[in-house]
């Protein structure tokens, strides 16, 4: 994975995440940086609450990376609004333990989404009804757009988790598309 720029590292550090750092992510174009704030807040809270290491297996993807990954044409990874997460395997750990933690992660995220869990953020937000994705305007409902707050010493915004959740054999996909979508696990 390419090393993150100092500016991107500073952006991620300003979010005050407890468990993730910029070098675990693919650095997106600057105009997409704020799109990842909500999904990172969700992933960071999950990693904290579950108490076991979680790795990011996929974050932002450009069109070529998305094609190579087998991603769909309108993947939220293209907008920096999605993460694929998997519990890290511990030394000499049976695969069944990793599968158990994968299901715990999926069910926790599903519960938070059902409850409309709200996460404090280090950025302020505004609403938009359309989203431009590589020159194509998507009109799939209301989406999140973000603006950075000038003072990030205290949470200045909040994010309600509404998005996609997918269960795969080795990872959980989570995104912040602004509407519910579920696949692979009911």
State the main characteristics.
single chain, alpha+beta, Muramoyl-pentapeptide Carboxypeptidase, domain 2, five-stranded mixed sheet, 4 helices, 27% helix, globular
Explained architecture:
This protein is an alpha+beta fold. It has one domain: Muramoyl-pentapeptide Carboxypeptidase, domain 2 (2-Layer Sandwich), CATH 3.30.1380.10. The protein has helices at 6-14, 37-50, 63-69, 95-115, and strands at 54-58, 82-87, 118-121, 123-128, 131-133, 136-138, 143-148, 157-160, 164-167, 172-175, 181-183. The strands form 4 sheets. It has a 5-stranded mixed beta sheet, covered by helices on one side. It has a two-stranded antiparallel sheet with strand order 3-8. A two-stranded antiparallel ribbon has the order 4-7. The chain is globular, with a radius of gyration of 16 Å. The model is unreliable at 124-155 (pLDDT under 50).
């Amino acid at each position: 994975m390419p090393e993150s720029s100092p500016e991107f590292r500073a952006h991620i550090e300003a979010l005050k995440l407890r468990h993730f750092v910029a070098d675990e992510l693919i650095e997106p174009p600057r105009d997409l940086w704020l799109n990842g704030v909500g999904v990172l807040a969700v992933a960071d809270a999950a990693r904290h609450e579950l108490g076991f290491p979680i790795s990011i297996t996929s974050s932002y993807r450009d069109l070529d990376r998305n094609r190579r990954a087998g991603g769909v044409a309108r993947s939220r990874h293209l907008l920096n609004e999605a993460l694929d997460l998997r519990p890290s395997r511990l030394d000499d750990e049976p695969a069944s333990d990793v599968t158990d933690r994968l299901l715990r992660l999926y069910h926790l995220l599903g519960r938070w989404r059902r409850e409309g869990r709200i996460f404090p953020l280090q950025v302020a937000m505004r609403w938009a009804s359309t989203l431009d994705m590589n020159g194509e305007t998507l009109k799939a409902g209301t989406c999140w757009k973000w603006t950075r707050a000038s003072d990030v010493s205290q949470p200045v915004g909040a994010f309600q988790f509404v998005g996609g959740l997918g269960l795969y054999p080795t990872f959980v996909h989570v995104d912040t598309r602004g509407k519910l979508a579920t696949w692979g696990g009911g």
